[in-house]
Amino acid sequence: MRDDNSVPQGIVWTPLPAASLPAGHPVRQGLHPTVDVTSERKATVPRRDVAAILEAERAWARVVLDAIDDGVLTIDLLGRVTHMNRVAETLTGWSQPEAIGKPLSRVFHLVDGKTQQTTIPPGRRAIEENRTAGFALDCVLVRQDGSKLEIEDSAAPIHDREGRVTGAVIVFHDATRSQVMLERMAYLAQHDALTGLPNRALLTERLSRAISLARRHRHLVALLYLDLDAFKPINDALGHDVGDRLLQAVAGRLQECMRDIDTVCRQGGDEFVILLAEIRQPEDATTVAEKLLAALSRPFHVQGHELLVTLSIGISLYPDDADDADALMQNADTAMYHTKRNGRNGHRSFTAEMDGRPLQRRRIDSGLQRLLPPSQGVFNFS
To answer: End of a domain among 181, 213, 232?
Structure first.
């Protein structure tokens, strides 16, 4: 809050409604200038100085309001538009010169999204009730050209220095923007940013659901744990960009081999997990594993390089090997490392004879078997 001693004479500062500005905005805790029209104030400051100060403050306010991402519109006590920022112009379709002085109901025509009946503008309610007023649900703005836009947010009364209501400020934004943001955040929470595949959180959810259904309908669920053999040398020799592109290409081939009801997940690094939600017999899982090995046996062409990679796959089954998601995942992981220890580029199914305790995970890097320039041959990292 500014010290009153620092306020130029002739200007009264009144707090802006906190709800009208985004958190952290430089004017969130700022003040809004109005002219004090008392004769005593007028007598102390020349009129031209008051006008100059007021115009400077108005210019400052215009710059600030135009920097806000939301639409901002103000009205006086008679419900006439007194200001619009650029976002408000874009959302309503009205320019500020066209809108100034016009009734709010004309510039900011709101209807119910279901009934299409005109609704009471929140600015009027903010003035009449002297409190912040939220928009009605399914609120639709009828723009100047007749098109419609779902909007949301709120309105708040504007007060002078004595606390009297002098108007209202309406802050609003495109409601679809919020929905898109929420959907994007939900997607990122459940998917790998690099490949777009489901991540561990989404896999765990789907695996638990698959086990519940399998228990009810008495069918099998298979979990395949995949690891790219000797992937680290690719990053070391050719760079992470090539490695990332290769992971994306691998993800694409894995998905091509799956049914719609199956899930391909990137577990992290160069590890993937595949959930076969419904299979009839254990051999179905080994058939899929063979299909995956064949799919990845074809060279990948990445940024001018021809790359050959192989897979080590571990398989565990519900209910044969485990009856819960965590144990099923651990057993598939164990089987995969047994595949790695026994030559790689293949698959193994979990058995009770395998050491079920957490393995000391260590990468088996045999180095580059062959590293030639792309023009001379193929990079073989298997």
So the answer is: 181
Count the domains in the chain: 2
Bin 303: left if φ > 0, else alpha if -120 < ψ < 50, else beta.
Answer: left
Tokens matching residue 36: 């004090």
Write down the residue that tokens 């179905």 correspond to. Answer: 284
pLDDT in tens, 202-247: 999 999 999 999 999 999 999 999 999 878 888 888 888 999 999 9
Whether 69 shows a pLDDT value over 80: the answer reads no
> What's residue 199's pLDDT?
94
Residue 165: which of 78, 237, 81, 233 has the closest Cα? Answer: 78
How far are the Cα atoms of 35, 62, 157, 178 from residue 160, in angstroms, in the given order?
10, 19, 10, 33
Those residues whose C-beta lies under 8 Å from the C-beta of residue 329, and which sit 6 or more positions away, are 207, 223, 225, 273, 316
Determine how many CB atoms are found less than 10 A away from the CB of residue 356: 15
Residue 109: domain span: 4-181
pLDDT of residue 125: 87
Please check whether residue 291 is in contact with residue 285, taking contact to mean a CB–CB distance below 8 angstroms: no
* CA–CA gap between residue 37 and residue 179 (Å, rounded): 46
Q: Which residues of 300-318 are buried (b: 16+ CB within 10 A; e: fewer)?
A: bebeebebbbbbbbbbbbb
Single-letter amino acid, residue 146: G
Q: How much is the average pLDDT of 242-256?
A: 94
Q: Is the pLDDT of residue 322 over 70?
A: yes
What is the distance between the alpha carbons of residues 119 and 139, in angstroms, rounded to a whole number?
Answer: 8
Q: Which residues are catalytic?
A: 270
Q: Is the peptide bond before 319 cis (omega within 30 degrees of 0)?
A: yes
Which one is predicted more confidently, 363 or 326? 326
Tens-digit pLDDT profile for residues 35-63: 444 444 444 556 666 556 555 656 555 65
Same domain, 130 and 219: no
In this structure, the answer to whether residues 139 and 244 fall within a common structural domain is no
CATH code of the domain covering residue 251: 3.30.70.270
Q: What is the DSSP letter of 105?
A: H
Scanning the structure block, which residue is given the tokens 């060279």? 299
The predicted structure's pLDDT at residue 50:
54
Q: Is residue 48 one of the residues assigned to a domain?
A: yes
Token pair listed for 147? 């098109």
Final residue in a domain of this structure, among 160, 181, 202? 181
